[in-house]
Design goal:
By secondary structure, the chain is of the alpha/beta class. The protein is globular, with a radius of gyration of 14 Å. The protein has a 3-stranded parallel beta sheet, with helices on both faces. The two termini are about 15 Å apart.
Amino acid sequence: PRIKVAVISGFMMTSAAYHGRTWTCGSQVVNGLLKYGDLSDIACTFAPRPTLIITGKYDCVTPFPFAAAACKKIKRAYEVAGVSDKTSQFVFPGDHVFQPQAALEWLERWL
């Protein structure tokens, strides 16, 4: 496969997070996606490739409860695929900020 490892930072959440909210730029919204599944459903198809999801506990764009729900679904898909060690959620006590050290450590581990 062309993509060997993934790092998803600051937008993995369920679509329920968007309903009635105006705080997002909308770049995470794919028109018609929900006909086929949610963002987390797409991430489930990454298995068995290693995937890290970086989430700020106080992210103003990706509310933590919605991110945690998406990550729970992804973790379950990886468990069913027999590769639960190849996905992880890195949670940090911050806002909508990329965490380069976490990303680099993940990439170094798997590449």
